[in-house]
Write a structure and sequence with these properties.
The complex is a heterodimer of chains A (417) and B (62). With 417 residues, chain A is α+β, with helices and mostly antiparallel strands. Helix content of chain A is 26%, strand content 31%. Chain A contains eight helices and 15 strands. With 62 residues, chain B is of the alpha+beta class. The chains are: A alpha+beta (417), B alpha+beta (62). Chains A and B meet through β9, β10, α4, α5 and β15 of A and α1, β1 and β2 of B.
Chain lengths: 417, 62
């Protein structure tokens, strides 16, 4: 997988801006999107892949699509030979190329990464090449971090420990789904309304990450990727980057895929019902769904690699992980808080809220409108509920992003069945 | 006089509780970056989009 310059024999790397593979030593470069001159590049037998495509898909209607896969791994699949490395700290297994590849783990940034073996890995069908450079990814992070009220100054300063471009493995599902249902919405003033709906949709290239190491909630936040920019896989795109290998079989994610398509379709159906209020308080909602009938078909599944930057920032004695979508520049992070900033914000909020509430209470007492206290209590209850929910969300997010929990990501995948 | 004292005490308590709620809510908004996920539109490449085959509205009891 490590590619060499045909001019000087040095190591080459893919440049997202030029869309070419460039030699760092003699500045030799390929033509845009044409990597045929590179040495060590495995030629790709397209016919073979068509025959032995991974996965092989079988269709079965109506409710239980069955996916079958090439069982004889290594021989019958479309494969590529690659060097596997193993991180002793977080357990990550990575396919590596590039000059610093064998030094640091792309996930946790630890220097405990060791060569494992040369392995034959399933060859992806698609890839979205990196569009952003490391510098652009860091600029994107800086822009986002400038907006947060509680983000510590040390994080804003962006003391970068390591930046790694990693191609993440994804299964790309094409799914047809049709659902019919009756939605009943109850309103306070106007009775109950009934909506009969029957809707269908072809969802294309729904992305589900195939890495057990990456928490599925975090990887969903990296989305969306623009799948119109998927291009045929070529190992040349990997030069200079890390690539994670898939360790979640497509079979394990088919239900998660259908669940997502179902949610998207139901969302559109509920949107079409005028009296339905989708916002729920706890488990309370103003609608019920009845007489549901579903028909779906997973039409195609492909294996693809999608780009992401993993940025380790130095903070206190440890590191903070920030992910950036290597195509769109979307930043994903759950950052620590600076207590000083929280206290400041709380005092500021109190200075505004206390006089307002004092005036309101005095007004209520003056005109003896005691039932109005219920409104104040409701506002307070709403704010407390919002605060508790915000805090819980933050704590959960911090746990998911912490590098220490990377190794337990497999257990965290609640969408796998 | 009692009304003023009550207004100060109750207003202060309610103000502080609301300020605390608002501050805690801001935590997820400020420090969870990129919290939004992909939507259906990102995966509907078919020009027809989501197709409704049946769409009937009625009021219960009528």
């Amino acid at each position: 997988m490590s590619l060499k310059c045909p001019n000087c024999g040095g190591q080459v790397a893919y440049d997202p801006q030029l869309k070419k593979v460039v030699c760092d030593f003699c500045r030799w470069e390929t033509a845009e999107g044409d990597f045929s001159e590179l040495e060590g590049r495995q030629e790709y037998d397209e016919e073979k892949e068509k025959e032995d495509a991974l996965p092989i898909l079988m269709r079965k209607r109506p409710t239980q699509p069955v996916l079958e896969f090439a069982q004889d791994e290594g021989e019958s699949e479309a494969v590529m030979e690659t060097s596997l490395y193993h991180c002793k700290t977080c357990g990550a297994k990575l396919m590596l190329s590039g000059t610093e590849a064998s030094t640091f783990c792309g996930f946790c940034g630890a220097s405990t990464i060791v060569f494992d073996r040369v392995s034959k890995e399933a060859r992806p069908k698609w890839i979205i090449p990196f569009k952003l450079t490391e510098e652009q990814a860091l600029t994107s992070i800086k822009t986002h971090f400038s907006k947060g009220d509680y983000i510590p100054d040390k994080i804003r300063e962006l003391t970068v420990d390591k930046v790694h471009g990693i191609y993440m493995p994804y299964w790309l599902f094409d799914t047809y789904i049709r659902r019919s249902m009756t939605v009943e919405a109850t309103t306070h003033d106007d009775g109950t309304f009934r909506y009969v709906r029957d809707a269908s949709c072809h969802f294309k290239k729904v992305t589900l990450d195939a890495s057990a190491r990456l928490n599925n909630k975090m990887s969903r936040r990296l989305e969306p990727f623009d799948t119109d920019e998927l291009t045929d896989f070529d190992v040349a795109y990997l030069s200079g980057y890390y690539a994670d290998r898939y360790d979640v079989p497509v079979e394990a994610l088919k239900n998660a895929n259908v669940k997502r398509c179902r949610e998207y379709l139901d969302d559109a159906i509920l949107d079409s019902c005028p009296r339905v209020n989708k916002r729920t308080i706890g488990s309370l909602s103003n609608y019920t769904i009845k007489n549901v009938h579903e028909d779906y078909e997973i039409e195609n599944v492909d294996y693809g690699l999608l780009p992401a930057y993993f940025v380790n920032l130095k903070y206190d004695t440890g590191r903070e992980l920030v992910m950036v979508n290597g195509q769109t520049g979307k930043v994903v992070a759950n950052l620590p808080v600076e207590k000083k900033r929280i206290v400041k914000k709380f005092l500021k909020n109190s200075l505004i809220a206390c006089p307002i509430f004092m005036a309101l209470v005095y007004g209520i007492l003056s005109v003896n409108m005691y039932p109005a206290f219920l409104i104040l209590a409701a506002i307070t209850g709403f704010m407390v509920a919002g605060g508790v929910s915000g805090y819980k969300k933050y704590k959960m997010g911090r746990y998911r992003m912490s590098t220490g929990s990377m190794t337990s990501y497999t257990n965290d995948r609640e969408d796998m069945t | 006089m009692i009304k003023i004292v009550l207004a100060i005490v109750i207003g202060l308590v309610l103000g502080l509780v609301n300020a605390a709620g608002g501050t805690a809510y801001g935590l997820s908004k400020s420090n969870i970056v990129g919290g939004e996920e992909a939507s259906a539109e990102d995966f509907v490449k078919d020009r027809r989009g989501i197709v409704f085959h049946d769409k009937r509205d009625s009021k219960k009891g009528l």
